[in-house]
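re the bet — no i am not wrong, look at it urself. input seq straight from the record:
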Amino acid sequence: MDRGPDIWLPGCHVSCNQNNCTGVGTPKWGDRCVDQTEIDEWFERTCHVRLGDHYRDDCDAKCKQLGLGAGQCVTDADYCGGGIDSAHCVCEKGSPVPSPSTTPIVAP
C-alpha cells in the first residue's frame, strides 16, 4: 500500500506480512525517478494482491499544465527508511502542495 497517487509528495510502498494487512508493514519500494522529468509513482492505498499498482508520469508536463514552469523529478534519499529512496515532482515556480514532510505517512 501507499498513500495514493500524488506525484508532489514522496511515498513508500509497504508490504504487510499478516493477513488483512494487520500489524506493522515493512517498506519495500518508494516512488522513483526514471529520469530527470519522469516519475514512477505507486498509487494503491489499500492492502491488495500483486497487480499493476504504479504508473509513470511526466513532472515537466504536469508543471507546465499548471502554469508552474518547468518540472523535474527529485530523489528523496532514504525517505522510506532502511536505505529505500522515494521521489517527488517539483516545479520551477513552486509546488502545488506544501513541501513534503520528512516522515513517510502510510495509509492503513
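see?? Confidence is low (pLDDT under 50) at residues 102-108. told u. also The chain has one domain: 12-91. so pay up
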